[in-house]
Specification:
heterodimer, A: about 120 residues, mainly beta, 6-stranded mixed sheet, 4-stranded antiparallel sheet, B: about 110 residues, 7-stranded mixed sheet, about 50% strand
Chain lengths: ~120, ~110
């Protein structure tokens, strides 16, 4: 069974850091890019960033709202993609989701239930 | 960035109704558009991929089409479980961008 499971969310203060994990199972993790999305309370879905595969040079890209503060990485031995969030702002409060992509016909097809990040003083 | 203009933002409908949601892209995105359903507390669910392809396991009452940069999502006969929020996503160009969402209510 294919699964994407997010974890690591919590309540933190502005200016601090948090690392989210996205644990993949049931498919060849190394074949797929991973994207992160988020949904702030009462707002729509927003793409956060992605990381490509080794074959694609593990290219990364990010939304302007998080560029320079968020970093995506991946561990092929553990089938985990990480979202390192630094210099957190109140407006980063959201449910964060991960999903796989990058293979035609298998893009954004499996998502986790999300992990809540609350940034508050 | 590619802007995705989704309409309507909300929609009231009844069981059995035919519903149409549209997304207009600000530039050509070919067929790189998906439609998703969101319900509170649940994982986003892919319904339509690459403009018009029905995801495995999704009922055939859901459909998608394209005319130029206008994309249409249709539910042919609303069922109780369809009341949710729907989003389009373009992945032709980075940054990926989504429509504002359509909240479908009874």
């Amino acid at each position: 069974e294919i699964q994407m499971v997010e974890s690591g969310g919590g309540s933190v203060q502005p200016g601090t850091s948090l690392r989210l994990s996205c644990t993949a199972s049931g498919f060849r993790f190394s074949d797929h890019a991973v994207s992160w999305f988020r949904q702030a309370p009462g707002k729509g879905l927003e793409w956060v960033g992605f990381i490509r595969t080794t074959n694609e040079g593990e290219g990364r890209d990010y939304a302007a709202s998080v560029k320079g503060r968020f970093t995506i990485s991946r561990d092929y031995s553990k089938n985990i993609a990480y979202l390192q969030m630094d210099s957190l702002k109140i407006e980063d409060t959201a449910v964060y989701y991960c999903t796989r992509e990058g293979v035609p016909g298998f893009e954004f097809d499996y998502w986790g239930q999300g992990t809540l990040v609350t940034v508050s003083s | 960035d590619i802007q995705m203009t989704q309409s309507p933002s909300s929609l009231s409908a009844s069981i059995g109704d035919r519903v149409t949601i549209t997304c207009r892209a600000s530039q050509d995105i070919s067929n790189f558009l998906n439609w998703f359903q969101l319900k509170p507390g649940k994982a986003p669910k892919l319904l339509i991929y690459h403009t018009s392809n029905l995801e495995t396991g999704v009922p055939s009452r859901f459909g998608g089409s394209r005319s130029g940069t206008d994309f249409t999502f249709t539910i042919s006969s609303l069922q109780p479980e369809d009341f949710a929020t729907y989003y389009c996503l373009q992945y032709e160009k980075v940054p990926y961008t989504l429509g504002q969402g359509t909240r479908l209510e009874i």
